[in-house]
Amino acid sequence: MEPLRFPGRGVEGLEASVRRLMAESEQQARLLDSLSAAPDESALPYAGFPLGMTPGLPGPAAPEPRFILTLDAVAFEAELDALTDWVHDFLLPTYGAEVSTAMPWCRQWAEHLDVVGWLHALWMAYQQHTDPEAGLSGPAVWHRDFLTHTMAAVRAPGGPLSACMTSLDRPSHRILPSPHGPAPAPGDEQPAEGGVAA
Q1: Can you tell me the distance from the alpha carbon of 65 to that of 49, in angstroms, rounded to the nearest whole number?
Q2: Which of 16, 60, 61, 93 lies 20 to 30 Å from 163 when distance is taken between CA atoms?
Q3: Range 139-161 burial, b when 16+ CB lie within 10 A, else e
Q4: pTM for this one?
């Protein structure tokens, strides 16, 4: 076989062309890698804004928190689970004073619908007033305006838990009947005090 001959260019020119092609190939491979990688969001002009927000324009509205007693059964159970975690992990260890006749409690507090309402409202206020946007006085406002009043109402001697546990040695649970209980059957009406049945 005869050696290959390249007209007009020597081996040095061919080697230079091959090196140039290899360098261009490596550069294209790096470009392809960078294009296929996830974008570096910190380099974007509005990286500090939540997704979908542009400075000066309102972003998508966050879902409004809803009071637990207005939720359907599935959402109620999910919210009650989260509330229970907060009550047992934070509220009671921090603010659950000793159980007494003056400060009753119920280990089955979640079965008292009115107590669930009170504690959920307290938790919603806690979330709002411990958010950085509430400012440095947010927690103090939560203590003053929400915690003290809620705990006094829920744990009052005549409050919703008054028929429950008044001593840790005697755990008990009882739901007090509602004043809007079932209507008496005909003929079962009690006469009014000092009067006769209608």
Answers
A1: 22
A2: 93
A3: eeebeeebbeebbeebbeeebbb
A4: 0.59
Per-residue pLDDT tens digits for 149-190: 999 999 999 999 988 988 777 777 777 777 776 655 555 555
The single-letter code of the amino acid at 197 is A
Residue 116: exposure state from Cβ atoms within 10 A (0-12, 13-18, ≥19):
buried
Long-range contacts of 127-135 (CB under 8 A, 24+ apart): 127/65
Q: What is the pLDDT of residue 144?
A: 95
pLDDT over 70 percentage in the chain: 70
Say which residue the tokens 């003929």 belong to: 187
Helix then strand then coil, % of the chain, to nearest 5: 50, 0, 50
- The CA distance from 45 to 43, in Å, is 6
Residues 6+ apart with CB under 8 A from 172: 163, 164, 165
CA distance 118 to 102: 19
